[in-house]
Design goal:
Elements: H1 2-8, E1 16-18, H2 30-47, E2 56-58
Parallel strand pairs: 1-2
Protein name: Tr-type G domain-containing protein
Pfam family, one: GTP_EFTU
GO molecular function, one term: GTP binding
Length: about 70
């Protein structure tokens, strides 16, 4: 819904943070990250964003992992 509103208001660039990656099993699971990227990409493409230009960033808001500095996870 936020992506739709942003696009409607003229936002042309978007970055998606995939949050709660610390809660996946195992933590920062590549499989779960790929599932989220696939599902969200379908929605974002329907809105009108160019998928190749939208970065997806795995993060943990709770621990701050990969939010300010790049993480090895």
């Amino acid at each position: 819904e936020h992506a739709l509103l942003a696009y409607t208001l003229g936002v042309k660039q978007l970055m998606v943070c995939v949050n709660k990656m610390d809660l996946t099993e195992p933590p920062f699971s590549q499989k779960r990250y790929d599932e989220v990227v696939k599902n969200v990409s379908v929605f974002i493409k329907k809105i009108g964003f160019e998928i190749g230009a939208v970065p997806f960033i795995p993060v943990s808001g709770w621990s701050g992992e990969n939010m300010i500095a790049p993480s090895q996870k």
